[in-house]
Amino acid sequence: MVVVNALVQGILLGGVFAMAALGLSIAFGILRVVNLAHGEIMTVGAYIAAIALSRFGVSVWVSLLVAVPLLGLAGYWVQRAMLQRALRIGELAPLLVTFGIAIIIPNVLIELFTTNKQAIPTGGLAVSSISLVEGVNVGVLPLITMAVAVALIAATQLYLSKTRNGRYMRAAADDWETLRLMGVDHRRVYALAMAMAFGIAALAGVFFGMRQGGVTPYDGQLAVLFAFEAVIIGGLGSLWGTLAGGIVLGVSQTLAGVVSPELPLLVGNLVFLAVLMFRPTGIVQSKVAV
Amino acid sequence: MTYLASAGKRPGRARHLLFAALPAAAVLTIAACTPAGTGGSSDSAEPSSSSSELAAGDEMGDTIKIGYIAPATGTLAGFTDGDPYMLSYVREQFADGITIDGVTYPVEIIDRDSASDAAKAGELAQELITDEQVDLLMATSTPETVNPVIAQCEANAVPCLTANAPWQAVIFGAGFGPDNPMKWTHHFFFGIEGFGDVDPLAWDQIDTNKKVGVLWPNDSDGGAFRDPDTGYTPYAEAAGYTIVDPGAYEDGTQDFTSIIQTFKDNDVEIIAGIPIPPDFVTFWTQAAQQGFHPKVATIGKALFFPTTVPSIPDDLGQGLAFATWWGPTFPYQSSFDDLTPQQWIDGFEASPEGEGLVWNQATPLNLSLFEVAKVGLEASGDPHDKAAVSASFDDINMMTLGGQIDFTSGPFPGIATIPTAMGQWQKDDAGEWEWVVVDAGDVPDLPVDRPLDILAWS
Fold it and tell me: Which of A114, B233, B319, B341 could bridge B36 with an S-S bond, Cβ 3.0-4.6 Å?
């Protein structure tokens, strides 16, 4: 029963990892940009939720309506004004730009809000749970997180395959020069994809914050590590792969915890390393974008 | 602090990149209106140093230079967010210089930001010693800041005064010991005994099965607590309690299911430990989710930061207890202006530097550094005689804002310990979080507000 419990908790933990990984996967799959600032974008999303709550009394769920479009807009212009320009210098330049953003954001947050933790209270939600069987309790918030992650991935998949903009995005990922010859502004398409990536990152950041009861300026550094691992395990650029990657990472952490509390992070990192060595394309074959 | 320590490298680059990325005018604005942490500290000497002016007619000595290294930015900045206020207060105190044997010396305080990076702390110490030729170097907040500074002082024979780091981590962590004492350094803070002596006093107030589940992470603090001889266990066992140690989990662990299971299987009714803040919130939330309901919890480190408890979901922070070393009711008095803790807090909260901040327990000890420095320099006879200054600290036994600092009776040469008491968090009638004293512990004459409440799980 201990193992079953660990398995269940691990799968649910995978939900939050997958959500964090999704935006990263989009940015890489479509734009070929490794967004090192992904964790910090999540942090900003969580800050918007926390500030909306403490200053204006807006509930977390309503604040998502602000945080997601706001960061989407930010993503659009970061791509158009900075990353697209940086691309002219060289392939590595956008990476360095995102690294710079990753450093600037926490420092700006400290200037504005101090290092103090900004609370994101969710009332009883974060601690309420459902008892499946004796010895296996499932938290309601992790369950919601998982459901939202799955819905988000399904919606993104549909968007990319069914809509005109989605098709442009896939086309831009494959061959932007041809897309341009067809009369489509690839820069706009790229910017839209980055807007999506940022918006989803904001959403993931809010869920990460709810899980930890709040957010501090440096929370993004750990979040981005797990997100990267989930993306690599699942397969770069594969959307459902991020879910699989998240769950594999979550389950390997919780199962390792059953053996010994020293192991979860180590085993998670080892699984990541093993996938990178023996199956660098990830465990799920990519169907989209790449 | 495995992940914090590695993460702490980034802010160092952060400042430079931030500065490089912004136009010069914007940089000036940022430097001028730094509200939290970075106030007054910068990489150039000019804005951060203040010379005192002399009254005419005094016999004048050469300027005394005091270096002060603290993590003003980065992951450890929570320790020092009261420093801008503290430093401006101290500079006022030293405005007229120090008079020693009829000679008045101007005092220059040079503060530097370690950016929460141990390597940078060491570089800054070297710079202050060789370039600025400081007469006294001070450092504060965590072994990551203090130890590299001490290493430079010991190597260069410069008097050093440090605080706000468990003394075992300073002595044993830096390779000192009974056979190899610190020659130039004086450090004050409590150590494992500050937790081990006081935590059982809280547990004793509640009827339990005396089984204590501990959260000792796989970092330097966790390792020191786990040591079977010099760690925490002997204190708990001496008080009649059994330790249940699930093992050294990593800082940043996302799931505590197996640890909670271990506690359940062993019928643990008491929780103690020194987790980092996010880990404790994760643990406590999952404990509630999975129906693990201990009766008492005494948590160090995580609860030190005043914003941790209010951020725990569903008011589950209610009733958490922790070893504390300073608060508004502590019977302490500063040697500057006879300030009491309550007066200090009032002054801080009313000041522009304190706006938006909650007072914390680290700042008063940082002020104590300057109080001790002043008395030590005065007693030395010649503030530029490094050996005399260092030796004069050996005899210090004085009351400061942060408590009684006594270098004459410490556990090691150059170490002074401060006492701890037990505090417990509660929500007041207005819905604001506060903590009250539930046991005076080792602090003499500390009024106890009320007995410890058992944790209420709804």
Answer: A114
